[in-house]
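Protocol step 4 of 5: obtain the predicted structure for the target chain.
Materials: sequence only (see below). No template structures provided, no constraints applied. The aim of this step is simply to have a reference model before the mutagenesis design in step 5. Sequence pasted as it appears in the construct record:
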Amino acid sequence: MSAQERYSRARERIEVGQYEAALADLIWFHDNALLESRAWSGVRLSYALDDWVRLGELYPPAMVALHGVRDDKVAGLLDGRLDRSAFHDVAAINAILQTPEKTHGLYRQLMDAQPELARSCVQSALPSIVAAKDYRLAAQLLPDPESAVRRYAARLNYDVQYIKRCRYTRAPRRWAYLCHYLEGVQRLLAVLRGVDNHGEADRLKALAIALVPDPSLRREVRNGFVKMPRAPMMKR
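Step 4 output (structure tokens):
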């Protein structure tokens, strides 16, 4: 059974009340989907975790299992058994559980216990550090802000152009790329404003819009600084 089939079956089982079986499928998908294809990385840490939390609201053992997955990865990170991919998983789980402060706390622990690993996890840790308003730490960890904005924009422009050359897919790629860009830039702006560099923040916001040549996409970026675009619904 493929990862797609396993995940689809998990969602179907939630709908018909087969909660224990649905949990087994979600655990399998979390543990094995990337072995089939790295293309599952986004769904695995977004829609699949959403479904896991939804299942946990209906079937408490599922929530216990999700906390257990996170806690096992935290332990492995602190003792050096796991790498930054596990930190990325932990950060995503904490985000879906609305406990970003736990990721911030873990990163602070890693800075002491596993400093090299901590340095490799900066990008995954930054959202929680900014959410905790630990702006001084974030400013220390951030790359050159303008270079980062230019790099983010180049990636967005490339990814959106690449979509046009791909075969049709139901995956909401454009939305995901746009949100990733907006979130990255807004994080930089929040840090700059948090350390009272408002002028630079305003300049980089204007630059982030100007670096997008496609008129439609540029309009979406501009609007996104006012209100983030809503996620498209995935078909069940």
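Step 4 remarks: The mean pLDDT is 92. The chain has two domains: 3-135, 145-224.
Proceed to step 5.
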